[in-house]
Specification:
- The protein is α+β, with helices and mostly antiparallel strands and 171 residues long.
- Helix content is 33%, strand content 33%.
- A five-stranded mixed sheet has the order 2-8-7-4-5. It has a three-stranded antiparallel sheet with strand order 1-3-6, with no helix packed on it.
- A hairpin with a 2-residue loop joins strand 4 and strand 5.
- The relative contact order is 0.19.
Length: 171
């Protein structure tokens, strides 16, 4: 009989400890879930069109562009050992568009996008290291040879200098 009474006294203590553990872990789990939700709903970084490093003058942020579009901007800093590119970024990956000469203060390019109609993508002025410059030029050459330009998943050295988000206008 005494054993049953000891079990009754011990069981509530275990339940209480489990409850306290759940209460202690809940804020951590809630914060993790909230972080994942925010990252899922904000797919792109928030660097602006005009930074201390570079600017994209045209097109403006949150406008529609045609498949053939014009992009222009300025370079405000030097980036020794880095190579400057205009790239597009979408949920499918990174698409190098064209190099920018490091000595170019003002630059201007006519580009084509294969992004889906009414889908947001980013135009980014980026700096990359030698290895990623070589990756971009290999990607250009492979695309010219095959006609296929799949998105690049990761570019380790990519440093965003300025960016705008645009979408392809309905055709």
């Amino acid at each position: 009989m005494q054993d049953a009474s000891v079990q009754q006294r011990v069981a509530p203590a275990i339940s209480s400890n489990a409850f306290l553990a759940i209460v202690a872990i809940f804020p951590v789990l809630f914060a993790a879930a909230l972080t994942l939700l925010i990252k899922a709903s904000v797919p792109f970084s928030t660097i602006g069109a005009n930074t201390e490093f570079a600017s994209i003058i045209s097109p403006s942020n949150n406008v529609s562009v045609k498949r053939n579009y014009h992009v222009s901007g300025t370079i405000k800093s030097e980036f020794p050992g880095r190579h400057l590119f205009v790239i597009e970024q979408s949920s499918d990956g990174i698409y190098p568009k064209a190099p920018i000469q490091p000595s170019a203060v003002n630059w201007s390019l006519d580009l084509y996008t294969g992004a889906p109609v009414n889908k947001d993508f980013r135009i980014i002025v980026a700096a990359v290291d030698d290895a990623d410059k070589d990756l971009f030029f290999k990607w250009f050459k492979t695309g010219e040879n095959t006609g296929q330009y799949p998105g690049i998943n990761t570019v380790d050295s990519l440093q965003e200098l300025s960016a705008v988000t645009v979408r392809v206008a309905g055709e």
